[in-house]
Structure prediction request, 1795 residues.
Amino acid sequence: MLVSLLRRLIQATFVLVAMTVIVFLGVNVIGNPVDILISPQADQAERTRLIAEFGLDQPVWIQYFEFVKGALQGDLGTSYVFNEPALKIILQHLPATLELAVAATLMSVAIGIPLGLYAGLRPKSLPTRIIMAGSILGFSLPTFWVGMLLILCFAVYLGWFPSSGRGDTVTVFGIPWSFLTLDGLQHMLLPAFNLALFKTSLILRLTRAGVQEVMPQDYIRLARAKGLSNRRIVAVHVLKNVLIPVVTVVGLEFGSIIAFSVVTEKIFAWPGMGKLIIDSINVLDRPVMVAYLMIIVVLFILINLVVDVLYTILDPRIRLNAGRGR
Amino acid sequence: MSGTQSHNPLVTSAAKVEASPLAHAFHQFARSRLALFGLALLLLIVCAAIFAPWLTPQNPYDLMQLDILDGMLPPGEASMSQGFIFRLGSDEQGRDIYSAILYGLRISLIVGVISALTAAIVGSVLGLLAAYVGGRTESTIMRLVDLQLSFPTILVALMILATLGKGITNVVLALVIVEWATFARAARGTALVETRREYVEAADCMGLPMRSILFRHLLPNCIPPLIVIVTVQIAKAISLEATLSFLGVGVPVTEPSLGLLIANGYQFMFAGKYWLSVFPGIALLATIASINLVGDRLRDVFNPRGA
Amino acid sequence: MNVQRRTFLGGAGALLAAASLFQGARVLAAERDGTLTIAFASETSSVDPHWHIVTANSSVSQHIFDRLVHLDATQTPVPGLATAWKSVDDNTWEFVLREGVTFHDGAPLTVEDVIFSYERAQNVPGAIFNLRAYLGDKTFEKVDEKTLRVRTQQSNPLVPIELSTTAIISRRIGEGATSADYNSGKAAIGTGPFKFVEYVPGARIVMERHDAYWGAKPEWRKVVIQPIAVGGSRVAALQAGDVDMIDSVPPADIAHLESAAGVALERGVANRMIFLSFDQGRKVSPFVRGKDGSEIPNPFLDLRVRQAINLAIDKKAIAARILEGNGQAAEQLVPPGIFGHNAGIKLVEPDIAKAKALLAEAGLPDGFRVTLHGPNDRFIRDTAVVQAVAQMLTRIGIATEVETMPGTVFYKRASGGGPEDGSEFSFFLIGYGAATGEVSAALRNLVHSFDKSKGFGSNNRLRYSNRELDAMIEKGLGTLDDDARRALFEEVCARAMNDVAVLPLYYPISVWGMKNSLTYAGRTDERTLAFDVTMKA
Amino acid sequence: MIENRNIAMQGDDVAENVRKAFEMNRPPILSIRDLTVSFLNNETWTPVVRDISFDVGRKETVAVVGESGSGKSVTAMSVMRLLPAETSRVQGSIMLDGRSLTQMSDEEIRDIRGNEVAMIFQEASLNPVYTIGFQLVETLVRHRRMMRNAALAESVRLLEKVRIPAARTRLNDYPHQLSGGMRQRVAIAMALACQPKLLIADEPTTALDVTIQAQIIELIKHIQQEDDMSVLFITHDMGVVAEVSDRTVVMYKGDMIEAGPTEQIFHHSSRPYTRALLTSIPQLGSMTGKSEPEPFPVVDHTTGEVTPPDPADRSVVPAPDPMLRVSDLTVRFDIRGGLFGGVTGRVHAVEDVSFDLFRGETLSIVGESGCGKSTTARAIMGLVKPKSGQIRLDGGELGELSAEMKVAMRRKMQMVFQDPFASLNPRMVVGDAIAEPIARFTDLSARGVADRVAELLELVGLAPDMARRFPHQFSGGQRQRICIARALALNPQLIVADEAVSALDASVKAQVVNLLLDLQQRLGLAYLFISHDMAVVERISHRVAVMYLGEIVEIGPREAIFENPQHPYTRTLLSAVPVADPSRRHMNRGLDETEIKSPLRSVDYVPPRLPIREVAPGHFVRQVS
Prediction:
């Protein structure tokens, strides 16, 4: 276990450094935040003075060196737009995104797995045909377009759910959560569903493929030869074998949900990290962009680690030679 | 010589099965009606995109033909000056949505197909090399793949486009950078299985050069699973391009792809002018769904493990 | 296989249960002494009143902090914390402080607080946008407990207006406070009509009425402001009753909101102008070519070409069809009602034939080829406006290609990097709005020739230059007498428009949507102030 | 050696027959009457098994034998009604102890499965993600309503009953931690959980090595005595049938050819197919007394008349120096692990192997899985890089040659693989597969190449016009012939056959072996024949080498090795082979549960160099440590 942990950490630091360099070069190439944020009245002298004050006239690698020095002390620079430490802003927006991602994942698992099981066990039945057609649809619907339709239909015409925003939150050990309030849940349902749609079809198809692969196995034939009831065979023997690959995919996909929330947050005005990064890119707020990337990288390392651990716990065949690495 | 033949009759009667594996594959593909429907729809869409100039009353990218007075007309209205009917309504520039969809389809398909194919070629070659050569090269390539896949596609594309700026070539480049890893991993996976099979070892024993083993033996057998992944990736590329355009970092605004059409129409969605977004959305959905249908059936026919 | 059926139905059941949660979705409609919920288009980036003076930030800070001088709906100065002021001589003004004003924490307002505010406003740590442009030329002295003296290097008629930009904070709390302290509420202590309650970045700001306020008592006990960036969602929130009022109603929704039940619209012409700018500084312009692609002398230098372009563009059609009521056709630098607006300047009616004739007269019978640049994320429907202009110019022979880009890239390339170290572009769409609420800023920065040392023409990116007008502008800037200054500036505006120094297209009209039980006087500075929102009788 | 074994057995048979007579009059435990099973594919019902009738008496073992596709497994599965309900239809009656299984409801048959009738399969088929204990307890709880800890205790007892060492610790092991043999023992324990009246064993030993197979067969017979249990034994191996069954049912393409006491079936069967089946199956000991290899007699399935093998002189022309000399060949694989991929263990696949091979001679290498025989072959063919040792071909040492020379030399040797389905490129027409080496290495014109291909196809007994067909259009036997044709394309002098016939059915196996012998006769080829099938090796080889844990433990002429085995391992190997003759049954050889040792060693392991001594001219034996 330790081995894959260390290997992942080394890999992550490499990614971190590479990412920050790319963003630094990129952001400097396309523009200068001073041009965008400066007041219309300020004259040329003011502009050059500000550029010097922010050190933006330094050669790129000096700026990068300054940044790294700061980063090592936990200061990822201050946002040009919010005038607050970039790290703090991101962490303020993180719970909203995490909450949405978890809700979407739970929803996709709660819907995807039962449907996948049913489709796998009853391949020829009519409901299965509908489920599979639905999954193709779920796969193909572009997230942003669906988001619009959801708002239009459920919020505006039917008025069942609020159209945007996050609703009231309850602060639990210092972090505001909205899923603890009824209003928060109502706000979260549509965006979470929008995010979950793609993942549900993915999990559904994975579960179905898993079931179809496990059913003809000879240990299932032996289980039937042992006289076990269908229900027990599915619940005990089939389910655990099917869930192992599904769990790993859900883990890995959790990361991409967080990334994809960029689109959903923009449409549903959900104050998460996704919306923040899009706005920061528009105004070239580089400290926030870099801080966002670093947090995403850290988040991904954690996710991959959790998936590794989960995988070894679930599948005994992996656990025993964990020392030998994969 | 003839001696051996006469006294064992069992030997010469070969079983009668379809001819080449390709004919065999298509026969199996055609057995699902859903897949055929998907294929037909896809062909229809591709033809519509190719023959767009002849099918559409207006070239939406030529500003000369747009008349602002024709702006925001609902479906079925006639154009003020140019005398044709806006079958699916017009946008605020007076651009006919029906024509814009067909031209937009063209861009979406081009972006999707080119990026998927380039990524396929780059990825597969690297994957095959990794599998066949193994050792140091394999671990470096696969570390790179893991690195790439551990990052969500949309974020990487976003960062690339934010730094390189807009334009179709940049979008394609971003998509290729994001997609090649999936192909590399799939190609390596299948190639590893194939290299262990005896016909590759037999070729090795015969002293055939590596080049011919790789391209005459290994590649043809790795093609089927890759075909499935190409179809799925094309659908993903089109969807991703549309999302990027929606976020405002995709194709330039004067030549809107389907994604941008939807994005432009988005503001009018709540104003009851549904047609600006709904019709391009349906076109985009039809394209992606048909490709997925075909891809899905191909997977059942070749049933590779892959992505 | 009944185990599947149960979980399958179970899953569906959860979905239905979630839907039944919806009864409680309605927020209580705003009623007197209740809560007013407003949705802003852009996000308030900080509660610090001196940080980045932008509509969303200044709207909020005006609730919590007061200024010496306030501007009314048409940006004319009215007494704020200063009850009266007068110019003692050409370079000095004196302001009389209002009696008995206390901060939210009960401490009294002193002259030292005012002086400290003006000093801190000029160097907020980390600020790119700061108020040096308005306060840089002034020095502040305390005369006595009630009076403040302001000295300027040269005579400056705009001192009261320029002081209206800066919020007054208390020295005791403001000393060493960072923006973070304002966001957390620790330093958000002002003298304004509302007290700070809570600020959640990206989600909402909550403020409570300050009962001991010196001015008129606002009708709302509590105000909640939340950002909803996407126009459609903002409108949907209003229609669904989640919010009571929204700002920046998108053009597409104006028509159907007007007819929507329970919703009322209020309009206000913004003191901003969106205009076209031509390259009048260079002999050969980078993005101008002959019809055959060959290099031609810069046609924009010829007045007749500029007049032809002016005639070709139908500003009313753009305002009506593209902006759909979110813009008013503009014929000069500032909208009516703003100091310096010259009613005598008439909107040029479009005339394709005359435009073609002028082009022929200028030696370009079949026009030329040009690329029109513009941002794609700064003004309402900027890409649509640019394409409409291109359409109209192509009709009179000027083959116009269009290239729009995100603001980040556009401003950088528009300001420099082109040949003869001027702008990269030849012809682009851009906007200008003055916080001081009168025409002198536009004349000083747009019309006056570019002069880096004296700080004139800083926004004159394409180097229009008219020595005569420069002199008149400089004279006006020093004229204290309002009437004389107004007459002089009106004359300059007329001359500049005749010379088509720049080609104004429209003044944006900001449109507020609200429940029909509310009214609000639309402001030219586009700010949304809850204490100006009143219940209908 | 083999003769005296038979005498020892004579005595036990008598007691056995007496007991059998007593059993006869009790009603049969299972009686199947005109059982017909048909499967549905694209709307048509095709019968796979047609009116089978036989009984299984108490404590009796009935074997159902037939080649693949004969429907023997389908018969077994239909007894327990394990065939998929929608796509299969079972007609006829199946009576278990007087009750009709076909009429029973799902609940009732579920109560019987695993309780009164138990089943074991070819692969031990244990669920990989649950421990052995969990799966054992599951049966006990399901049928005998035991409490958990009582079930655990009972599980330990059951594991001990099937001779699993340290049973208690095995409970929380996972299936992949056990060897094939061990897993099959667990499956048997699971089947015995509820003292079933009938055990159905569907090819339980086919996938096991011959020594382990013998152990399992002994175990089943032993348990059958102890627990008064009848066994329905499904297999394709006549040797196993002779070892195990009291009565035998012979099946061919869904029909029941013959049923009766095993003794009667083997010695005086009336049906030609049965006789053909028996003669075409290589029987150990059938070459006693003959020193040279001899092809199989060919039997016509329909008429049953036997054409004896054509007697030709197959002795090897003595030559001064061998065509291939392998000396001190060593191959080791490093097992990597740990953070930086350090070596954590090493597999000693081939240890210090030396032998010679002369023109026209067949040397066979036999041994169980993991003994290193294939690795030796692959090292010689250059597919695996040996750690040390010389390989001299026609005098040229392969190690020192330049690249092109090496390739030229290497063309003199070609290889034929085990899996007929994987050894031909599915995407390439058969003709091209054969033509590729010819086009590459000879300067023949396109016409010349095509002729050569036709000639090669005819040489291996296939019609030249088959060149344009794809591999998936041929049967297993035909594909193996195509591989042989491809191997002969460049006129090699040596063919390495790595388990070349193991994957084929008995009848087809005989034909391919005859083809190989015929080609050797005509083209003077030398064969390095790798196999675990002792009966085929006896028939085809001039000399035999026995390998165990990477070392050659005994090498010498086939006659000497088979009739006078010196090394203890060779003896156990030969004695473990089931002999297709009921009269020579090995009675209670004693339950032995020694596992096959694994060649995986620790990093610092130094293999002991045991000396080899010559016991007879050309017959060498390694000293036992």
Summary: Strands of chain A lie at 170-172, 175-177. Residues 31-75 of chain A form one domain.
